[in-house]
Please model this.
Amino acid sequence: MSDPSGTSEYPPVDEPVDEVVDGPVDEIVGDAAGGVATVVTARPPRRKSSIARALPDTGRAWIFVAPVLVALAVVIGYPVVRAVSMSFQKDSGLDPATGMFVNGGSAGFSNYTHWLLQQCALPAGGTEACPTGNLGSQFWAAILVTLLFTVITVTLEAVIGLGMATVMGKTFKGRALLRAAVLIPWAIPTAVTARLWEFMFQYDGVVNRVLGTHILWQTDPLWSRFAVIIADVWKTTPFMALLILAGLQVIPADVYEAARVDGASAWQRFTHITLPLLKPALLVAILFRTMDALRLYDLPAIMTQGNANTRTLSILVVDQVRQGANSASALSVITFLLIFAVAFVLVKVLGANAVATQEEQRRAH
Model:
């Protein structure tokens, strides 16, 4: 409807409506059919904060990482530095000349020679070979026991864990229940596991009754070590199986299918497909388990009361702390260097093979 003057209330439909926009204009897009122009405006650039302008990208990243590094320095760095510092100090004790309790003072490398060379200090000065029964005389025996436990347990756990992971990786009814049941030994605390196996390996325990034997599992030089190995393998094999199973899950199924089409047997598929592609996961599993086995303490300390036949480096450190914290710190540093050296060798040997395997996979794809 129009007013008396002849002008309309609404603008004509065919006339384009101009849009007034404040700010810079980037582009004007026109509609050829309707004649309507759309104005696209450019957004003003986002202003950076004063900190963002002052610091580069790496600097801003360090701001977020710094709190974690400070926490690690307090929790890990300080104890390590303190242990190294204490290892160069003499243990406190009685002065033979005055009979007074005095601080030890600087020891140089005598704490390290005490363990590595099995030299014990004399009250009047000088050193001599540590007598039998002294903890210093048991260092190399503890090294051998620790390495023996590590090599045997890690090997058995890797082989058995690989078999368990292969079975758990297949599709069958009740697979979820089997996976949950397998993880039970690993979920039980180590102290509880050690106490259970101690009861079983007692002279009148379950093992001797079932086997009909009279073996002193907790004191015999051979069988006490065998008992600790059995308990450790039972406890930690599920952990290895879990890590290996994670590696098996990422192997493509079409690789096995192509091998079957080519007529490869089950053993050929295992040796030429599974093992090569499983090297990275095996490296992680073996590395973690080796570092854990080198500091074994709970099982032998509880099952055999840490006797000389099953005394590991960790047990020797704890026993020495009761006699002198500074010499025990030196033994802790030696243990740390041993674990670091073994881990370095494993990463260099197995890690290089794992990286080569991954490069071959990339080229194949």
In short: Residues 57-129 form one domain. The CA atoms of residues 283 and 347 lie 8 Å apart. DSSP finds 15 helices and six strands in the chain.
